[in-house]
């Protein structure tokens, strides 16, 4: 199951699990749309392709909350 990281690893922008605009690689590195575009849709950590992260809403989000661990600046 996706951890649904709450922030962009590059700029720290908030990326709620129930909203679009997040991009992830196969290792779940997470970036906002602006940073993904600036990175030419390539993860700077692994070189993998950055793709739209699916959203998690309603009961699915309530039963499986997103991570609260922030990754910006780590």
Explain this structure to me?
This is Urease-associated protein. Pfam families: DUF1272. The chain is α+β, with helices and mostly antiparallel strands and 74 residues long. The protein has one domain (1-58). The chain is 16% helix and 11% strand. The protein is built from two helices and three strands, in the order E-E-H-E-H. A hairpin with a 5-residue loop joins strand 1 (22-24) and strand 2. The protein starts with 21 loop residues before the first strand and ends in an 11-residue tail after the last helix.
Which features characterize this protein?
74 residues; alpha+beta; 16% helix
Number of domains: 1
Anisotropy-based shape? globular
User: Number of helical runs?
Assistant: 2
> By helix and strand content, what is the structural category?
alpha+beta
Count of β-strands: 3
Q: Helix coverage percent of residues?
A: 10-25%
| Mean pLDDT across residues | 95
Task: Summarize the main sheet.
Answer: 3 strands, antiparallel
* Uncertain runs: none
Placed side by side, the strands forming the largest sheet appear as 2-1-3
* Rg of Cα set: 12 Å
Spell the H/E element sequence. EEHEH
The share of residues in extended strands comes to 5-15%
* CA(first)-CA(last) distance: 22 Å
Explain briefly what this protein structure is.
The protein has 74 residues and is α+β, with helices and mostly antiparallel strands. It has helices spanning 33-38, 58-63; strands at residues 22-24, 30-32, 51-52. The chain is built from two helices and three strands.
List the helices and strands and how they pair.
Elements: E1 22-24, E2 30-32, H1 33-38, E3 51-52, H2 58-63
Antiparallel strand pairs: 1-2, 1-3
């Amino acid at each position: 199951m996706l951890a649904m990281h709450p922030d962009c690893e590059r700029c720290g922008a908030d990326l709620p699990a129930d909203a679009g605009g997040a991009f992830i690689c196969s290792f779940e590195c997470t970036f906002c749309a602006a940073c993904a575009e600036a990175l030419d849709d390539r993860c700077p950590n692994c070189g993998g392709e950055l793709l739209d992260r699916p959203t998690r809403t309603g009961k699915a989000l309530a039963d499986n909350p997103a991570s609260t661990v922030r990754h910006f600046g780590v």
